[in-house]
UniProtKB/TrEMBL annotation:
InterPro entries on file: Thioredoxin, Thioredoxin-like_sf, Thioredoxin_CS, Thioredoxin_domain, TPR-like_helical_dom_sf
Matches recorded under NCBIfam families: thioredoxin
Phylogenetic placement of the source organism: Bacteria, Pseudomonadati, Pseudomonadota, Alphaproteobacteria, Hyphomicrobiales
PANTHER family (UniProt xref): GEO12009P1
Name of protein: Thioredoxin
Keyword Thylakoid listed: no
Any Pfam family: Thioredoxin
Domain Thioredoxin: 22-144
Homology family: Belongs to the thioredoxin family.
Alphabetic keyword roster: Disulfide bond, Electron transport, Redox-active center, Transport
Cited SUPFAM superfamilies: Thioredoxin-like, TPR-like
Species the sequence originates in: Mesorhizobium retamae
Entries under PROSITE patterns matching the protein: THIOREDOXIN_1, THIOREDOXIN_2
UniProt key word Electron transport: yes
Length: 324
């Protein structure tokens, strides 16, 4: 096909949370879609199947490839959960081997990946072949229902609320309590590690991450914290942000200064400013540094997590730039 590889500069860097590679070819994982709740889409029909349809009800987009083993595990579970949900959400499947451009524009670098759309915009998502119970919880959340494991979910929600209110000590205590009872809860491990990292205790954060159970090291929450730590280490070598601001004041087209400033801003927790600076580069000169600003923005999305508010906001802005 004639589509240019949308993962600029990454070659064949499609990955899965379990394995990489395999044979291209084969059919879509999972069959037996119920009625019109589940369908395949293409680049040409994506707008109608997803953007427009999501204005009527939530639509989940399952990005997969024939060679992806975890995709073959996830998609049948997705179809089962969608059918059981009785029409609260729809499922649209997109083969990224045949239709790579949409996945690339949305920043999908790892499969399987599921992105939820509402009112024409991406609002939530996850990556990896997660368990059936988590799929049901995700669908219920997107579809507006409650459910799942109440006590654990409520505790994690309480920790999230405490952090949002600035009460990090309470959040840390909640995460500690969760881990005492359920030590394999990756969201609690990730949350506690992030709190320690934000407090400047990198060694403590590393020690908490070392407790991740075998087989869960690539969980999205854990990967996000590790990506944040890696980005911070990279940004610490860049220098004083005032220098980059001065260069931009003298020359607003100094994309390297804007890029470096975004990296420092992200390390300082100024996510929106970091995203806006990278988006400004994409808008001004998409080809700069081999599409480097967009590539860096996608790395930030991974670090922040697919459901993070700034990720969702910046992803919508990026989509508007790329699809307008």
């Amino acid at each position: 096909m004639s589509d240019q590889n949308p993962f600029g500069g990454m070659g064949n860097a499609y990955t899965t949370t379990v394995q990489y590679g395999g044979q291209n070819g084969g059919s879509a994982p999972g069959n037996g879609a119920a009625g019109n709740l589940i369908k395949d889409t293409t680049t040409a029909t994506f707008t109608a199947d997803v953007i427009q349809e999501s204005r009527n009800q939530p639509v989940l987009v399952d990005f997969w490839a024939p060679w992806c083993g975890p995709c073959k595990q996830l998609t049948p579970l997705l179809e089962k959960a969608i059918t059981a949900a009785g029409g609260t959400v729809k499922l649209v499947k997109m083969n990224i081997d045949e239709h790579p451009s949409i996945a690339g524009q949305l920043g999908i670098q790892s499969i399987p990946a599921v992105i939820a759309f509402k009112n024409g915009q991406p609002v939530d998502g996850f990556m990896g072949a997660i368990p059936e119970s988590q799929i049901r919880e995700f669908i219920e959340r997107v579809g507006g229902k409650g459910g799942g494991q109440p006590q654990l979910a409520e505790a994690l929600a309480a920790a999230t609320e405490a952090r949002a209110a600035g009460d990090v000590q309470t959040a840390a205590d909640i995460y500690q309590s969760i881990l005492e009872q359920a030590p394999d809860t990756v969201d609690a491990i990730a949350g506690l590690a992030e709190i320690l990292f934000d407090a400047g205790d990198t060694a403590g954060a590393e020690a908490v991450l070392a407790q991740v159970p075998e087989g869960k090291g690539e969980a999205p929450a854990i990967s996000a914290v590790r990506a944040r730590m890696a980005l911070a280490a990279q940004a610490s070598e860049l220098g004083n942000p005032a220098e980059f601001e001065k260069r931009l004041a003298e020359n607003p087209k100094d994309h390297q200064a804007r890029f470096d400033l975004a990296m420092v801003q992200n390390a300082m927790g100024e996510r929106e400013k970091a995203a806006d600076n990278l988006l400004a580069i994409v808008k001004a000169d998409r080809a700069w540094n081999d599409d480097g600003a967009r590539a860096q923005l996608l790395q930030l999305f991974e670090a922040w997590g697919p459901a993070d508010e700034v990720t969702l906001s910046a992803r919508r802005k990026l989509s508007s730039l790329l699809f307008s």
